[in-house]
Amino acid sequence: MNKPVNYLIVGAEGNPCWKFSCYGRKVEKAVELRKEGSRLLIIHELDFHDAVADLS
């Protein structure tokens, strides 16, 4: 993530490694940015779809 972002959408399929706290690099970077004070939201893809559907 080189540009400032407000949201990171995480896919529904996930990865079997996630249960061992081994996330992809973008998720790791997002978590790092949040620890540094960024207001970045990490959103599950199904929650994103629900929010968009509620708007229509």
Average pLDDT level: 82
Q: Care to count the β-strands?
A: 2
Sheet with the most strands? Answer: 2 strands, parallel
> What is the string of helix and strand elements?
EHEH
In which order are the strands of the major sheet placed?
1-2
Beta content? 5-15%
Compose a concise summary of this entry.
The protein is an alpha+beta fold and 56 residues long. The chain has helices at 25-35, 45-55; strands at 7-10, 41-44.
Describe this protein with a few key phrases.
alpha+beta; two-stranded parallel ribbon
Would you kindly provide a written description of the structure presented here, covering whatever features stand out?
The structure is a single chain. This protein is an alpha+beta fold. It has one domain. The protein has helices spanning 25-35, 45-55; strands at residues 7-10, 41-44. The mean pLDDT is 82. Strand 1 (7-10), helix 1 (25-35) and strand 2 (41-44) form a beta-alpha-beta unit. Helices cover 39% and strands 14% of the residues. It starts with 6 loop residues before the first strand and ends with a helix. The protein contains 2 helices and 2 strands.
